[in-house]
Recover the amino acids of this structure.
């Protein structure tokens, strides 16, 4: 995650431009299909879930890059 631009918009425990990684984990951790949903949001971007600021797509990241990021985010407590 440090090699991507995630921390330009997200902090672990505080809202910045986007929600905190803890808030993301709390919202999605127990949802069926959360890994796939978040993987898609990272790759394709998204909007309207956390407010008016959209998340930019990260199409340059591979599945192999995104999957461990999503696992790490969902593991935050």
């Amino acid at each position: 995650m440090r090699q991507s631009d995630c921390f330009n918009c997200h902090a672990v425990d505080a809202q910045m431009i986007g929600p905190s990684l803890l808030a993301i984990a709390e919202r999605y951790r127990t949802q069926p299909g959360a890994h796939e949903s978040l993987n898609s949001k990272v790759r394709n971007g998204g909007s309207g879930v956390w407010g008016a600021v959209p998340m930019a797509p990260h199409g340059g990241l591979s599945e192999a890059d995104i999957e461990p990021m999503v696992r790490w985010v969902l593991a935050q407590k």
The radius of gyration is 11 Å. The longest helix spans residues 63-74. The chain has a mean pLDDT of 95. The helical segments are 6-9, 21-28, 34-44, 63-74.
